[in-house]
């Protein structure tokens, strides 16, 4: 039995907000490189607190639930105190892995559950009264409209669906079109394992051997990061064999922000297709995917975008690839090949059930199946907080708070066996990094000691064995005082 049509359903009052999509910001509007200098008293707690007092975004911290130190230390769920003890919050520096829960998420989820329980199948076409959410058939559009300004895209170029690796597979199914010797995918050698596995399986699916069809870029000896020049040179040297370039916006291990604009322009000038994995870039740094002429991109939303564990992913397809045209003589549709499914079909004809596929114009024509309403709801709740500010304002604080962390880390670096205990392998240039500093410890076992010190002090920070701790101050909710405290813990563990 087909779901009822809109005409069959009675109307119901609602306060669903009208989402006014913002146009993508021009790349010339990026915030200029900030040079941060600090006074002689910058290493004091009073100074850190003064920065918090004068921070224009300090109120956003109140939009999130910060776990208490007591709850982080419990070994069994039954021992959790409810609610979190706000008088003794933990220091959470793991937003580059999983963001904090917005306080509004619970009420958004409740509204969705009420729609399901009160309206059931009718929820596809109308929400319950006073819900901040659109009907389920329009929920992806609501999430896409709110996400578009975060990645610098037209709303029609964004689709919130599935998860990161699934979306990469869907996009590569459309954009990786190997022919003859032009069959190789250029990527970095230290890509996140999931990306590597996805690319490896895609080339094998087309009948190629991974070792022959994958060009893996390595940093030059003595370096931790890939330079823009090195990437562009590799494109030039392999242009006749490359079928696709796939790179990370921000490299997860080092925290390097690649020059997406320059690399994209270079690849496209050579007639190549280029896509980006923005897992660590979306919600972290301003992006201008439309203006940069990126072919496609995919990202997760549970890191800096705070949608919850395993939250809904997103994808971008430039408008030139999402066009659907019809031959006036034959009536045949012309659109970019992709893996198709019912939810990529135009809603006006979707319920005809005639097996005549007419894709939605734009990125939503790359959907395959019905996106989870619960996952979209959790994402929209988080995006409502992003709507209170802009990526440019978040970037200002990010540059400032990351520079402060760098200043503290590099002031009087502790020594172990007469040598500096650590170095920062994230680029020094603020325009080549996001809200992350990767600290590489020089002595075996030192990372574990630092980790023990953090755990004892109620600090959550990401560790990448064998020797890197990723210090990631998320501008939405981390404070300068927290930066001061976490650096003190790192130095204290090294001294000990």
Automatic annotation (TrEMBL):
Q: Which residues are modified to N6-(pyridoxal phosphate)lysine?
A: 303
Reaction(s) this enzyme catalyzes, per UniProt: L-kynurenine + H2O = anthranilate + L-alanine + H(+); 3-hydroxy-L-kynurenine + H2O = 3-hydroxyanthranilate + L-alanine + H(+)
Enzymatic class: hydrolase
Could you tell me which residue ranges the Aminotransferase class V domain spans? 168-343
Q: Indicate whether Hydrolase appears among the record's keywords.
A: yes
Return the Gene3D superfamilies for the record: Aspartate Aminotransferase, domain 1, Type I PLP-dependent aspartate aminotransferase-like (Major domain)
- EC numbers listed for it are 3.7.1.3
| Description of how the protein assembles with itself and partners | Homodimer.
Q: What does this protein do?
A: Catalyzes the cleavage of L-kynurenine (L-Kyn) and L-3-hydroxykynurenine (L-3OHKyn) into anthranilic acid (AA) and 3-hydroxyanthranilic acid (3-OHAA), respectively.
Q: What is this protein called?
A: Kynureninase
Give the originating organism.
Cyphellophora attinorum
Q: What is the lineage of its organism?
A: Eukaryota, Fungi, Dikarya, Ascomycota, Pezizomycotina
Q: What gene name is given for the protein in this entry? A: BNA5
């Amino acid at each position: 039995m087909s779901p009822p049509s809109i005409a069959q359903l009675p109307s119901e009052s609602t306060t669903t907000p009208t989402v006014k999509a913002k146009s993508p910001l021009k790349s010339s509007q990026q915030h200029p490189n900030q040079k941060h200098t600090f006074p002689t008293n910058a290493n004091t707690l009073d100074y850190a607190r003064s920065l918090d007092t004068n921070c224009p975004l300090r109120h956003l911290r109140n939009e999130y639930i910060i776990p208490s130190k007591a709850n982080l230390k419990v070994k069994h769920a039954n021992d959790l105190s409810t609610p979190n003890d706000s008088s003794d919050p933990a220091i959470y520096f793991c937003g580059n892995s999983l963001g904090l829960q917005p306080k509004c998420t619970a009420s958004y989820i409740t509204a969705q559950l009420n729609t399901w329980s009160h309206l059931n199948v009718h929820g596809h076409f109308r929400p319950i009264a006073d819900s901040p959410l659109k009907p389920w058939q329009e929920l992806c559009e609501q999430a896409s409209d709110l996400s578009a300004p975060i990645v610098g895209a037209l709303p029609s170029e964004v689709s919130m669906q599935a998860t990161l690796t699934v979306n990469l597979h869907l996009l590569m199914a459309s954009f990786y079109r190997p022919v003859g010797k032009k069959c190789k995918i250029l990527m970095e050698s230290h890509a996140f394992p999931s990306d590597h596995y996805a690319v490896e399986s895609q080339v094998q699916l087309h009948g190629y051997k991974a070792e022959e069809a994958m060009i893996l870029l390595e940093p030059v000896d003595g370096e931790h990061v890939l330079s823009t020049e090195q990437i562009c040179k590799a494109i030039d040297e392999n242009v006749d064999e490359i079928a696709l370039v796939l790179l990370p916006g921000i490299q997860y291990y080092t925290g390097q922000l690649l020059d997406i604009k320059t690399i994209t322009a270079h690849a496209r000038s050579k007639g190549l297709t280029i896509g980006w994995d923005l897992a660590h870039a979306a919600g972290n740094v301003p992006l201008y995917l439309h203006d940069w002429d990126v072919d496609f991109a995919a990202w997760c939303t549970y890191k800096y975008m705070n949608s919850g564990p395993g939250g809904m992913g997103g994808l971008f397809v430039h408008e030139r690839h999402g066009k659907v045209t019809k031959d006036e003589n034959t009536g045949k549709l012309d659109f970019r090949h992709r893996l198709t499914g019912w939810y990529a079909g135009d809603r006006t004809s979707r319920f005809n059930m005639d097996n005549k596929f007419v894709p939605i114009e734009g990125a939503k024509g790359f959907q395959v199946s019905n996106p989870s309403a619960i996952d979209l709801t959790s994402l929209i709740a988080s995006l409502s907080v992003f709507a209170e500010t802009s990526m440019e304002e978040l970037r200002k604080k990010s540059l400032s708070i990351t520079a402060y962390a760098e200043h503290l880390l590099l002031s009087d670096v502790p020594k172990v066996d007469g040598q500096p205990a650590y170095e920062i392998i994230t680029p020094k240039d603020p325009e080549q990094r996001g809200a992350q500093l990767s600290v590489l410890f020089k002595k075996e076992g030192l990372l574990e000691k630092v980790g023990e010190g953090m755990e004892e002090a109620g600090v959550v920070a990401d560790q990448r064995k064998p020797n890197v701790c990723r210090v990631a101050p998320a501008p939405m909710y981390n404070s300068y005082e927290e930066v001061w405290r976490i650096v003190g813990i790192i130095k204290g563990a090294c001294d000990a």
